[in-house]
Amino acid sequence: MRLSRYFLPTLKETPSEAQIVSHRLMLRAGMIKQAGAGIYSWLPLGFRVLKKIENIVHEEQVRAGHIPMLMPTLQPADLWRESGRYDDYGEEMLRLKDRHGRDMLYGPTNEELITDIFRANISSYKDLPLTLYHIQWKFRDEIRPRFGVMRGREFYMKDGYNFDIDKPSALHAYNRHMVAYLRTYERMGLQAIPMRADSGPIGGDDTHEFLVLADTGESEVFYDSAITDLTLGNRDVNYDDWDECAAIAREFTTPYARTDETHDPEKFAQVPEGRRKTSRGIEVGQIFYFGTKYSDAMNATVQGPDGKPAPVHMGSHGIGVSRLVGAIIEASHDERGIVWPEEVAPFRVGIVNVKQGDAASDAACETLYRALTAAGVEVLYDDREERAGAKFAGMDLIGLPWRITVGPRGLANGVVELTDRRSGESEELAPDLVTSRLSPGA
Ligand code: ATP
Ligand code: MG
């Protein structure tokens, strides 16, 4: 992409309404624009990051054997009356009427809709287990929308639902989601710690939240620092292996880690003193096993192996896709701007032409831009007639992992400069070496 033809409305001033760094940086980097309280437009740069995150979420769900689909944002109220949540959900639910006077709502989550789809189509235990998910906009009329996309009213969420014939099978689905989630967050360059949680309005027995440690997080968290040493890494997990998934879930939930809602000071006191940590965290996901709560309320039974009707055991599993954009920035920035982890960066490389209009610089940039693009590398080429200082500041602000600086002085020696945004380290290299270094598989 050539910056002269792109739409990247960066701001020099820090907007006064933004209280936390990710919100400030998202506004300054031209990623979002507020449309109303807790409602945002995703401008091109922000949209690219949102899609990268969504794509990782999709890939890891499919890897775990879960099936993508799409349900609507608007739902009829009747299904929610069946489950009893039309009244229970309270003011967070945005309610509306269509022209015929029918009660509708903008979905805050989808347990009812998916259970309705399930009961209309599945009647035998032989069709289980089944896990369906979608990534769709949600609306919750939050009393205090704030921190930009971190607590919006309209937000983008992955929500998945498992249907199993009995509790052990549903608990395997729970563990499988835990492993898939750990992998999802790690791929985004994040450490998200599973913490035992309260079940809230979804209801249920077993639930964990995934929290990213950050000073600006809304939850207070208590944990054994041993948990921060755990990583999934490149383990080749067999998602059909109940024992393997259970062992990983056990590994990641054995060290003490809880939010203020479930904190148990007595248990915490048993953690060796030097490892006892208190901090703040951002909730980026949550998994639930809730048994037959919805299937009972909505008559979702299947024929069991003994020929008798059996209630279906369910769970639901959510990832805050749009919140993750902010959470990643909270976890990865410096005083100059965002520092994107490679996998979610809007572009991998920025080219800065320090002397636009200089024939040799323009030609070298053009060659690099074409070669990298041809190699499948996502490049943002700053080809504007701007001061070099402003171009550098802009690149630092938007946080692309690599910057290539091209100018007459280097070119006279046959080199350009390659700079790592995270470490700040630079290297002088011949332009074709830069291309091969940054090409996939290099
Ligand atoms: P919170 O406690 O932060 O209000 P929640 O527990 O009500 O969230 P869930 O129903 O567990 O939310 O939704 C799954 C995920 O969706 C959450 O883990 C979070 O990452 C994200 N999420 C929830 N509410 C919002 C919101 N208002 N804005 C952005 N993301 C949200
Ligand atoms: Mg939650």
Short description:
With 442 residues, the chain is an alpha+beta fold. The chain has 14 helices and 23 strands.
CATH fold-level assignment of the largest domain: BirA Bifunctional Protein, domain 2
Which homologous superfamily in CATH is the superfamily of the largest domain? Bira Bifunctional Protein, Domain 2
What does the overall shape look like? globular
Main pleated-sheet profile: 9 strands, mixed
Gyration radius, in Å? 24 Å
- CATH top level assignment of the largest domain: Alpha Beta
Proportion of β residues? Answer: 25-35%
Number of domains: 2
Q: Given the structure, what is the number of helices? A: 14
Pairing-aware structural class of the strands and helices?
Answer: alpha+beta
Question: Stretches where pLDDT falls below 50 for ≥5 residues?
Answer: none
CATH architecture of the largest domain: 2-Layer Sandwich
The number of distinct β-strands equals 23
What do you see in this structure?
With 442 residues, the protein is α+β, with helices and mostly antiparallel strands. It has 2 domains: 7-338, Bira Bifunctional Protein, Domain 2 (BirA Bifunctional Protein, domain 2, 2-Layer Sandwich), CATH 3.30.930; 347-438, 3-Layer(aba) Sandwich (Rossmann fold), CATH 3.40.50.800. It is built from 14 helices and 23 strands. The protein has helices at residues 21-28, 44-63, 77-83, 85-88, 111-121, 167-187, 242-253, 265-268, 293-297, 321-331, 359-374, 388-398, 408-412, 431-438, and strands at residues 32-36, 39-42, 67-68, 74-76, 94-97, 103-106, 130-139, 154-164, 192-196, 206-213, 219-224, 257-259, 276-291, 301-303, 309-311, 313-320, 333-334, 337-338, 349-353, 379-382, 402-406, 416-420, 426-429. The strands form 6 sheets. Strands 3, 7, 8, 9, 10, 11, 12, 13 and 16 form a 9-stranded mixed sheet that branches. Strands 20-19-21-22-23 form a 5-stranded mixed sheet, with helices on both faces. Strands 4-6-5 form a 3-stranded antiparallel sheet. Helix 11 (359-374) packs parallel to helix 14 (431-438). The chain is globular. The chain binds adenosine-5'-triphosphate (ATP) and magnesium ion. Magnesium ion binds next to strand 13. Adenosine-5'-triphosphate binds at residues 109, 140, 142, 151-152, 155, 157, 200, 283-286, 318, 320, 322-323.
